[in-house]
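Case study 2.
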Amino acid sequence: MYLIGIIEDDIQLRKTMENYISLQQVLSLVFSCNRIEKWISIRQDAGIIPDCILLDIGLPGISGLDAISIISSYYPGVKILVITGMEDPLVAWQAMMNGANGFLLKPFRLAEMQKQLEILQSGGTVLEPEIMTGLIQTARNRFNSAGGIERFQEFGLTQREIQVAELLLAGSSYKEISTILNVSYTTVNEHIKNIYKKVKVNSKMAFINRVLGKN
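Prediction:
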């Protein structure tokens, strides 16, 4: 059973999600409320810790963006799926840096929400194509302003590792990097393991955050 929490101020959308979750054998609703302040007041009474929280960004009071770190401090390891009507890549970037695991852009179909929850349950990250495009461009802009290739050299990366790192930062998949550099998928995987070791991270988002000087 995958345990779900909802924090959404749109009453109709919240009720629709509640009803859908109640009909799914593999999902169970832990709590549902309209703002962060309400969640804070009920979280101890709820007792059960959710696996994933569907979180609206545009909430009254404490914003969903600011709440990501608050929720993560109460529920270490919880998956946070941001629900938003905003396609601003800077907002998406900040949410991911704060610890969000993915996005659903309004309006969305409930079947799509189900699919995204399945991805999160399996350990993946949910990003709409529009959001991913914006994040890649934001990463490029911030990386260039942070010193570009010199930033990679600070971590002692080899020339080939720098090439792989640049493609990784630009959003290329392992397969795409393999094709571009004309090396095997296994070689790309080994390069990335070495890069993460040198940069002292263990995930792509942590890597991006680190090379941009956030940690």
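The mean pLDDT is 82.
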